[in-house]
Amino acid sequence: MNNSSLSLSISSLYQSQQAGHFIKNETVQGLAEEISGKLAKTDQKIEAKKYDFIEELRSERYLTQVETTLDNLKWAESLVVIGIGGSDLGGRALIEAFYQQDAAMKVLFVGDTTDPVSLKRLLDQINLNKTVFNVVSKSGGTLETLSTYVFFKAQVKKITANWAKHFVFTTSSVSGILKEEAERHSVMVLPVPEGVGGRFSVLTPVGLLPALAIGIDIKKLTSSAYEFSQNSDSRMMAKDLAKAYYELFHQNIKIAVMMTYSVQLQEFARWYRQLFAESLGKNDTGILPIKAWGPADQHSQLQFYNEGTPLQSVLIIKVENRQDNFVLSDIDVPEAQYLEGKDFNQLINLEAEATATSLTNHGRPNALLSISELDEKALGELFMLFELTVVYLADLFEVNGFDQPGVEESKKLVNQALSK
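Structure (tokenized):
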């Protein structure tokens, strides 16, 4: 039985009475045997517990470690996360989804750029005496992370000899620069599971420490993700998405737009971009992920999506019910009387549905993902939905979904230039 907070409608991806760029019946039939066989192999790997990003959710050991660490940081008023890519985007997505003005600890992010302006802006927002820095990197050697760490280490050492208490490292328990630094200076450490790559690590201590710092129920977050991965009906959502993206690829539609109608999910869409791009963009194949935001991009990108070169499919995400909402009343503008009694939750969801209908009317493939309410259960499921979609797609494309050689080369080139 599926009691997921998510529901997916994919009918507007497929051919109907209308002409357009939908998935054709002959495409479905031509790929059916290949897709069925490859998806079954992925399911076998899931059942055989081959994916550590799923299996690590079985244990609550990380929850306890994160809770203990945060208990030691109650003196701090700010937690600054220093990371980039998978060490950064998942945490940002969690904090934006559940931002709380009155949280006991303010959570900020830095380290995803070497632009000094970002450092200055952060320094203007914090009191170093009451700030702890969470440095997140499995290896510790990532240039942006390492340079930001040594900068803030130097700043903190100017104000206290006990600088180490201002740092927590989320890193490998086996080896690496941060592990060695922690051992030299007795810095608190949280583990990054060895078998979980950065872009799949949001539901490990990488994302859980900043999440808990603002009061997110991390047990509910992780347990809902795990339950989603074990439910055949829930997994079918991921298989349906993966199947459709693969079929679209074979019709030369190789761009997948995620258009979120929620300010809480803008950072989630950035996390999705990394997940798809790094996992699938290999061997001259893959799907290019694009981030769009509704309703703002109805007034910009939608023009191209409806009438431009048919390059993309669009996945629209809407939230059915929001905790915060406002009803329009006492309207004294004659031209706006039609809005009397309407609420903003209703308005934004009508706009999401209108965008989907508009795309369908223009013959453009689109799908609609609805979230009943954006709480920890829904967000845990949402992360798992796209992680599963990616592993299904990786097997469909026959690529390694867990490496990123195209990223590693640029890192080496920068380090070579610096060493000269």
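Strands lie at 6-9, 78-82, 106-110, 131-136, 167-171, 188-191, 255-261, 288-293, 312-321, 366-373. The first helix runs from residue 25 to 47.
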